[in-house]
Structure formats: C-alpha cells, structure tokens
Amino acid sequence: MADVQMPPAVPVSVRVNGTARSGEVEARKTLADFLRDDCGLTGTHLACEHGACGACTVLVDGQAVRSCLLFAVQCQTREVVTVEGLTVDPETLTPVQQAFQDCHGLQCGFCTPGFVVSVTAFLADNPDPTEEEIRIGLSGNLCRCTGYQGIYAAVRQAAAELRGSK
Amino acid sequence: MKPAAFDYHAPTTIDEALDLLAAHGDDARVLAGGQSLVPLMAVRLSRTEHLVDLNTIPALAEIGSANGSLSVGSMVRQRTIEHDPTIAATVPLLARATPWIGHFQIRNQGTVGGSLAHADPAAEYPAVALALDAQMEIRSAGQTRTVTAENFFEGLFSTCIEAGELLTAITFPTRQPGEGFAINEVARRHGDFALVGTAARVAVDNQGAVTSSAIAMFGVGTTPQRVTATEQALIGADQDADLNAIAQISSTELAPFDDLHASASYRKRVGAVTVRRALTDAIEEARDG
C-alpha cells in the first residue's frame, strides 16, 4: 500500500467541566469527537454528525451548541460543559435530570444527554416558558423513540422546580 | 460523517484574514458560525485545503450606528441579533426574522454574515437584506467595495463574493416614522427551512395609505426575490384596500420549483398567504406610528 500522508496534528487545549484537557489532534476533529475520544467523556452522544439531531449538544461558554459543528481547535480559550459536568457530585442529579427521571422523559436514553443539556440552557434563558415555547425550544433535539410527551412534562417540572428554588 | 483534512488558520485581524485569502485563493474557505458549512464538510459536499476561521477576529463582531443606518459586523451572532435591544428598535425586521432561523442552539453559533454569504434560497436573512436594501461591505487585500443586496445574490448558494474576498459588514437603514415591518413563513416544523415566506417593509402617509413597500419572498427560486408588481399594486392602499387581492398578484410573479417538500403551485398559493399576513402586520405597525 502506498504511503498515506496523515495531516499534521495541532495542539489543542480546552477547559472541559472545569479541568484543562489537552491533546494533539487533527484540525478536522470535531469537539464532539475530542470529548469522546481524547477526554473519554462518552456522555456526549453522536447520532447524525451533521447538526440535525441535537444529541451532541454541550455548553460552550454557557451556551448550548452542537459539538459536531465545532472543531476542537476552535475551543482553545473556551469553557466547555458536557452532561457529565452539570453536577459537581456524580451521585446527585440536577433538577432537570431529576425531572427526566420522574416524568419518564427518556426511553432508550440515547438522545437524553443532548436534551438535558439543551433544557438546562433553555430554562436558564427562559425560566417560565409557555407550552408553545417549550415545543419550539426543544425543536432542535430529536428523540427517535418519539417520547416527547414525557420530555415536555420533564421540562415543565424542572422549570417549576428551578423557579421555586430561587 | 468526518470532514476531509484541511489546514486550519485562526487570524486575529481582518487584514490577516485577507492576506490568507489572497495567498490561497480558491483553495481557501472562510468559517463563520459553521452551522451550514460544517455539515456540508461532514457529508463531503464541501472540502477545502485551507480553512480560515473568522471566529478569532473581534473586529468582525462589532455593531455600530451612524447617520440613519446600522452597521452589523458579519460575525455578529444570530443570538446577539435576537436579543439586542438596539437592533430590535432600529432594524426590527432583522430582529424579528431571527427566531425563525433554525433552533436556539444553531443561533448561538450562527452569524449574520455566514447566513448571507451561504445564500440559501429558503433562508430568512437574505430576504431581509433584500427587503431593506442592505449594503454589503466586501473586502479583499487592499480593496473595499460595497454591493447592494439586489446585486449580491447571484444564484443558488451563490453570491458576488470572489475568491480572496470577505464579507465584513452589512449596513441596514434604520427605522423611520411611518414604517412597518413583518416576516411570515410556512415550514413543516419550527426550525425547518421555510417552504415559502415573505419579508416586508411598508411606509404609510398621515392618512395611513401606503406610499412605498418592499416585499421580498424566500423559498421561491434560486435566490430571494422582490415581487415588484405586488409592490406597485400596494401603493395608495388605505384602510379599505383588499390586501388579499393585492397579495394574490405575487403568485403571478413567481416561478418556484417542485421539490420533495412542496410543489411549485403550493409555493405560489401559500406564498401569497405569507404575503398577505406579512403586509397585514407591517401596515398595522406603520399606521400605529
């Protein structure tokens, strides 16, 4: 077999869940793949890998983004939070996570990390959403089990819980 | 679903970016918010030798006002436009179009310049730019030119930006007394690309009769399109005018295509409905002052 020339690796250093993570990766490596392959943070799920499904949603500088549409090299000075980093203590659940459990907001669970991160950001922006706002707010995440009713119920519970705790 | 390899460049100034674009010509592409380009790279419909990231250039993310216009840097995020009170007050059509774009996660990263330069015929911002006669500032190493929105969009996903050039800012006229603005679209689900839609600007006189308008439709062809016969018919429209009949004229001006999502005749009929809805809202706002 002819020699395959590998593209040069570039150094990447990103703060993930409060910890500095660094590595040498190809420039084309997405943040999602960096989180999973280089950081071992497999809570961030990949389904469509082209920005349609929302499964890979993470927080970058506090805002929900699709980690399959950002390259790891773009996150040099940015603060990334994955589903693993929403709580400090892995034994406890956030109000959003607790609501997903209470309301049967997951079936197979594959889309759940993306939903949990999206809902966390959505409720930070809009603590008291209407039913229509919830549906629009969650339109960027797909659940292939189509278990949306439980997810909407979880958003309503989490919103009430978060408002009450303030 | 992995992009082909590229060399990554992260310039920190506009001049540095222009030098990179001059050096690499057709072998370079610029990366704005990446919410359209990166999917195209992932499915290998797009590949490039050199990717020039604009996210590291603060000068492209500035907003400034002067002399009845608002200049918006090409890297201003859609999220910023959606929530900025100055834009809501001075260029309301731009602000109102924004929640229709994709999903909030997309708007957190997507930019105004990226959307315009990508020139998706079903996208909202190109129609807004057309309805407002926005001016596009396009720079290359050593040269700056300004192009009106009318001359900016050349075809499907295609603009007048040449290799070596960069869309740096977009200038929108600010709202004047007696003007009203509205956008309306029909999509299968919120966040999907519009099947068809309308962005409208109208101006009325003291009696509430329409003196001028700009009606830009999207999802109706290879580029957003002004429906000028409809605009003409709207002139003089007062409280008694039949907006539905005027909106119907738009269907005679369009030559949309059939595709998987909607037939051409559907786009014409529903397009006229979006024209009526947008005009109703825009005229109401204009008459309210």
Quick structural summary:
The complex is a heterodimer of chains A (166) and B (289). With 166 residues, chain A is α+β, with helices and mostly antiparallel strands.
List the helices and strands and how they pair.
The complex is a heterodimer of chains A (166) and B (289).
Chain A: E1 9-16, E2 19-26, H1 31-38, E3 57-60, E4 63-66, E5 79-81, H2 95-102, H3 112-125, H4 131-137, H5 148-164
Parallel strand pairs in A: 1-5
Antiparallel strand pairs in A: 1-2, 3-4, 3-5
Chain B: E1 7-9, H1 14-24, E2 28-31, H2 37-42, E3 50-53, E4 63-66, E5 69-73, H3 78-83, H4 85-90, H5 92-97, H6 104-107, H7 112-118, H8 124-131, E6 135-140, E7 143-148, H9 149-152, E8 153-155, E9 158-159, E10 166-173, E11 179-186, E12 196-204, E13 210-218, E14 225-226, H10 228-234, H11 243-248, H12 250-253, H13 264-287
Parallel strand pairs in B: 1-3, 2-3
Antiparallel strand pairs in B: 4-5, 5-10, 6-7, 6-10, 8-9, 11-12, 12-13, 13-14
- Protein structure class of chain B: alpha+beta
**Main sheet summary of chain A:** 5 strands, mixed
Low-pLDDT segments of chain A: none
CATH C-level of the largest domain in chain A: Alpha Beta
Q: What structural class do helix, strand and pairing data of chain A support? A: alpha+beta
Query: Could you name the ranges of chain B where pLDDT drops below 50 across 5 or more consecutive residues?
Result: none
Structural descriptors:
heterodimer; A: about 170 residues; alpha+beta; Ubiquitin-like (UB roll); DNA polymerase, domain 1; 2 domains; 5-stranded mixed sheet; 5 helices; 5 strands; B: about 290 residues; Uridine Diphospho-n-acetylenolpyruvylglucosamine Reductase, domain 2; Uridine Diphospho-n-acetylenolpyruvylglucosamine Reductase, domain 3; Enolase-like, domain 1; 3 domains; 5-stranded antiparallel sheet; 4-stranded antiparallel sheet; about 35% helix; globular
Q: What does it look like?
A:
- Chain A is an alpha+beta fold and 166 residues long.
- Chain A has two domains: 9-85, Ubiquitin-like (UB roll); 95-164, [2Fe-2S]-binding domain (DNA polymerase, domain 1, Orthogonal Bundle), CATH 1.10.150.
- Chain A is 33% helix and 16% strand.
- In chain A, strands 2-1-5-3-4 form a five-stranded mixed sheet, with helices on both faces.
- Chain A is elongated.
- The mean pLDDT of chain A is 94.
- By secondary structure, chain B is an alpha+beta fold.
- Chain B has three domains: 7-53, Uridine Diphospho-n-acetylenolpyruvylglucosamine Reductase, domain 2 (2-Layer Sandwich); 58-173, Uridine Diphospho-n-acetylenolpyruvylglucosamine Reductase, domain 3; 179-287, Enolase-like, domain 1.
- Chain B is 34% helix and 25% strand.
- Chain B has helices at residues 14-24, 37-42, 78-83, 85-90, 92-97, 104-107, 112-118, 124-131, 149-152, 228-234, 243-248, 250-253, 264-287; strands at residues 7-9, 28-31, 50-53, 63-66, 69-73, 135-140, 143-148, 153-155, 158-159, 166-173, 179-186, 196-204, 210-218, 225-226.
- In chain B, the strands form four sheets. Chain B has a five-stranded antiparallel sheet.
- The longest helix of chain B has 24 residues, at 264-287.
- Chain B is globular.
- Chain A binds chain B through residues 7, 10, 26-28, 30, 33, 48-52, 54, 57, 63-66, 68-71, 73-74, 118, 121-122, 125, 135-137, 139-140, and chain B through 1-8, 10, 34-35, 38-39, 41-43, 51, 53, 55, 79, 102-106, 108-109, 189-191.
